[in-house]
Every structure is written in C-alpha cells, then in structure tokens.
Amino acid sequence: LGLDMEELEEIEEDAGLGNGGLGRLAACFLDSMATLGLAAYGYGIRYEYGIFNQKIRNGWQVEEADDWLRHGNPWEKARPEYMLPVHFYGRVEHGATGTKWVDTQVVLALPYDTPVPGYMNNTVNTMRLWSARAPNDFNLRDFNVGDYIQAVLDRNLAENISRVLYPNDNFFEGKELRLKQEYFVVAATLQDIIRRFKASKFGSTESVRTVFDSFPDQVAIQLNDTHPAMAIPELMRIFVDIEKLPWNKAWDITKQTFAYTNHTVLPEALERWPVDLVEKLLPRHLQIIYEINQRHLDHIASLFPNDVDRLRRMSLIEEEGTKRINMAHLCIVGSHAVNGVAKIHSEIVKTQVFKDFAVLEPEKFQNKTNGITPRRWLLLCNPGLAELIAEKIGEDYVRDLSQLTKLHEFVDDDLFIREVAKVKQENKVKFALYLEKEYKVKINPSSMFDVHVKRIHEYKRQLMNCLHIITMYNRIKRDPVKLFVPRTVIIGGKAAPGYHMAKMIIKLINAVAHVVNNDPIVGSKLKVIFLENYRVSLAEKVIPATDLSEQISTAGTEASGTGNMKFMLNGALTIGTMDGANVEMAEEAGEENLFIFGMRVEDVTELDREGYNAQEYYNQLPELKQAVDQIKGGFFSPEEPDLFKDVVNMLFHHDRFKVFADYEAYVKCQEKVSELYLNSKAWTKMVIRNIAAAGKFSSDRTIKEYARDIWHVEPSDLKIPPPNEPRDAVEDKTLNGTAA
C-alpha cells in the first residue's frame, strides 16, 4: 500500500490505562501468559480517558485529557451479548429465604475484548475491559414522570464510572467514584467468571443448583494490589446470598480462589476505605466484611488470649478516628497466597508491614520477583541489539531469556564489543535527532546519556539527581578547563496532579536546565532535558539509547521497579541503591558490575532510630551547601527568589527519604561512572556482563513461578496449529513425531 510501518506506529495512541509500573507489569504479564500458553484473562476498566498527557509550560507541568479513543480503537471488539448488571446503594433485607440486597441502582457493564497474541505460538488470549452503560430505563422507572430530557442527560452519572483513570501512583485517594470503579470491575468480572465456570463441564448442576466444590481447581484469581479487594466480599455474597452455600464452605472456596500481590509498603499508598462510604455504596458487602473480621478476630483471640493489642493491629477495621477498612488486611485474610515483587520487598512485607499475619501463617507469604517481556522491551524497541544477540547465541533466547548467559563467552571478543558499542551509538544518534526535533536543543551523541525516567515522587529521589546536576555545573564553572566527561542528563515522568511537591520538583529541574543549557562556559559538556509526557511509547525510544540508568530510591521504598530491568536488558549500566530488584540485578551480574551506593535498609532503620538530621550533612559538605544555597537563594529563579522555599524546607525539616544522607556517596559513585565511561572498551565489557545476567528478569520466569506456586497450572509449550492448517494433518505429524 506504499505505507511506512514506522510512520503508522507513530500515529497510533498509547493505551495509557495505568499509572506506571503496576499497569505496565500487567501488560507484560498478559504477554507472558499468552506466550506460555496459559488459559488466562486480563480484566480491567476501559477508561475513556487514560493517564493525562503532560505538557510543560514555562517549566510547570500542565495536564491535558488523554482522549485516546478519539480516532477509534481498531484492536477492540465490543461484546454487548455479554453485558452484565452491577448494583450500587440500596439496602439489605433479612428474610426467611435468606439475605437480599434490594432497591439498588443498576449500571450495566459492557465488555470490550482485545486480543493478546503469544509469541509465535498461534495462541491468542483475551484482555476484557469493562465500560459503564446506563440501562435504558435509567431514571425513567420512578418519580421522574415529567422530566424525560433531564432523565436522559442523567445517564452520564452512571456512565461516568468508566470515564477517567485516577492519576495517583503510590497514593490512596478515598473518593466515592474511585470505590465505584473498583467494585464495578470486580462485580462484572466475577459474574463473567462464574458464567464461564457454570458453562464448563466442571460446573455440574444437581437439580439446578451448581456444585462449586471444584471452583478453586478451575479458577484462580490474582489480585493486582488491593484495588480489586472488593472481589473477596463479592464472591462471598454470590456464594452465600445467591447460591445459598453455607458460610464455611463459601469461605473455604473463596480463600482457595484468591491470591494477593502487594506492590508497595508506603503507608500513604495503602487503601483504607471509610466504613460510612462502604455502608452507603455497598451495604451488604460491609456486613460480610464485618462477619469475616469477627471470625478472623475470634480465631486470633483463641490463639493469643488477652492480647488486645494484637487484635487491634490485625483487625480489618481500624477504629482510630474515622472507622476504616484496611483493604490489605482483607486481602491477606481472604487469600491462600500473598506475595511481594522482589526478594527484599517480600522480606519487608513478612518481617515489618504484615508481620503479625506472617507469624500466624508463614507458609502463606511468598516472593515473586517482577519481570518484563523481552518481546516489547528488546525485540520491538531495540531490533539492532536483538539481532546482534541472535547472531551470537541463536533466536531461542526470546522465549527463554536465561540463555543470555551464553553471552559471557563473548565478553572478551573484540569484534562483539565493537558491535555492541556501535548499536548503542546508533540508538543514541537516533534519539538525539528525535530530541533535537522535539526540543530544539543540540545534543552531543558522544556524551553519556544519563537517564532518570519514572513517576515523579519524593521516594524516587529525582531531587538527589537534581543536586548532582547542580554539583556538576558548579564544578565546571569552578574549573572550566579541567577534563569533564560530557553528559546529557534526561529526566522524565509525570507528577500526580494533586501532588504539590512532585510538581515543584519538575519546575526545579526545568529551572536548573534553563541555567545549565544557556551557560556558554558549560557549552556541550552538560545538557539537562526534562522529557515531556513520558509514556510507554517514549520509553521504547529512550531506553535503548541510555548509557546510565538511575535507580536511586531510598533503600526499602521501591518494591521492585521494572524500568531498572528494561535498561539492563538494553545495554545501560545502573547507578542505584540496594533497593527493590536492584539487589537481585547486582546478585545476578555481580555487584562490581553495577554502581551501587548509599545506605542499605539496615542503615536507614538505624538512622531513623538515631534521628535523621539534614542540617548536619549540609554543614559538613561544602558542595551540597553550595547547591542548596543556590536553590534557596534564587540562583535558578531570579525573578522569584523564594520559589523553591517549600522544597528546601522539606529537605531540611521533613525529608522522609533522606536525600542529604546519600548525597555524598551518590556524587562519589557518579565520579566512578565518569571514570569508566572514558574507557569505552571497559564500559562495553561491563554492559555485556549486564545483558548476559538479565535473563532472570523476563516476565516469562515470573509467570512460570506464579503458575507453579500459586495458580497450580502447567505452562504448555505445545504450539497450536495455525488456523490455515487442517487439524488432521497436524495430528498425523504428531504421530510421526515431527511436530513439537
């Protein structure tokens, strides 16, 4: 047709239906489940507006609506034949025939199916996303006799449920619409699952009543964080109120069905829904949660008599101030397996955050280290490197990433070293051209591309990177003729619209960039770019071009991270703390092949015990003092000298993430990075060692572990025949032993 594939790819909108790591992880998992031949479904909400588009206007973040469906979405298929009702509000009636939830408002859930193809195995799974629709008699059944027009306009109230994604990452906002969204996806999905179960041969019926004994053997539901936690009381409601199962049997089946993955230990991110809100929106579910809690606490009291503090700590209901439901506690009690997403995180979950629960049932707690799909994050985004690897070790590594260890044989192969460096250089030139086109700044492609892309959050410490940039700037100004390893520092990411400090951090980075980039003495030695509207499609461009990956969260705060893995697989070196999956990356590649610095979890704990005093570091480190004084004194904001007073005040008086405590170690570590970068061959050899050690971080490995340890299903390597091949021909081949 004379069309250019790359041009078409550029036109297509990202489906930005998640906030960051959590949503992207789910997408990688869907790819791996299809590639491993698992009969798995991904369920979620078909948001009309995804994560906002970020514009930078004179250094500030401005949000724009992400109207991603504007030109239609060719990959989805509406399935109105599977539309399902979801109930809200109403009241509970206890009668002779059992408990009924009545006088509810109904919203319809319309499913849209998107195919998820496995890699070269003729398997296609389904992602089913629900869209909210008002029933046709909405607001026309009752009272509303006269105002027909208003009744039709009010349909929007129901359909608002799937209108927009809440843009908070690692932060809980207890809004009614958000709770509606969480229950909406859960109620529609469970009805769908039960319909499918009943239609299968396992949902055998005895005189119209389904026998659910085999349900946990046929169905496994993984809760991706606590956002779908209402599934636990909802399944209980279906079993007890509708299917008339006795409580104990229903609870046993429910626990065997659910497993829960925890994704964060930050207290402000944990979901704690006010009881009053749940009582209004989902009155029956509140009763069921109370009953679950009563039996749970009775059990603990029998094991630990007179330990009232333990009961308070372990209750699903928090009584301090406004009564709230702790959704993580509900998930732990209602699941047969609980896991963290990296070794260090799972350890923190077990020994600190949910210690009381782990003491009770240690066998329930597991680790499943996150991974990324090598199809998107190597083959698709970095074809040059993928091809180079295939030339050396064959193409099978794409489905079995552990085969990358074979690259260790080529660490000293001069030709291979040159080829790896060449691919990286080509990627950098291509990205530099993109930056020049988009940002009108001239980039030196031989400079070190130092990249820090992720959501903007205090715990991720973009501020520490910013202090390092200022320090480098001051060193160049102090001694302009001294050898300086040129850097292009690229920082990108979105701040939640209501997160004041994160927005100030973006403004500060842009203010620093403005000074640095326009200083003739600095020239091409140092450039700073804030990458606007960071998203998956932009990650696919910047990651293959990166030399240095910044993974510098305070130890114990980043549950895993997955960007870290993408950079490692694409030939960047990592500067990072011993946090999240960085720990396992260092374990796989050897700590000497990463630039590890700063406090470990134990050091942070110790510093908390002593009391962190930011002022001490400021007084003792002249370069830190200079940088902070410049921010404070308006050097980067001459028109408004106290613009960054909130940032400076936070750093001195309530910095939970201890930026100053790691500053000195970070700057010293960065000096080591620059020193190695001068020796191109030694740098590239370290890159090869990293790529060779990246195999563990395939989401295929992660999913195999979930399948084996939690879902109890077997991945199938059987390649389903393509639809154009007659089935009997394939069976003949199998009999002759020629088909895999």
Automatic annotation (TrEMBL):
The keyword Phosphoprotein applies. Its cofactor is pyridoxal 5'-phosphate. Residues 717-740 are annotated as: Disordered. CDD domains: GT35_Glycogen_Phosphorylase (cd04300). The keyword Glycosyltransferase applies. Its EC number is 2.4.1.1. Keywords: Allosteric enzyme, Carbohydrate metabolism, Glycogen metabolism, Glycosyltransferase, Phosphoprotein, Pyridoxal phosphate, Transferase. Belongs to the glycogen phosphorylase family. Homodimer; enzymatically active. Interacts with PPP1R3B; recruits the phosphatase PP1 which dephosphorylates and inactivates PYGL/glycogen phosphorylase. Allosteric enzyme that catalyzes the rate-limiting step in glycogen catabolism, the phosphorolytic cleavage of glycogen to produce glucose-1-phosphate, and plays a central role in maintaining cellular and organismal glucose homeostasis. This is Alpha-1,4 glucan phosphorylase.
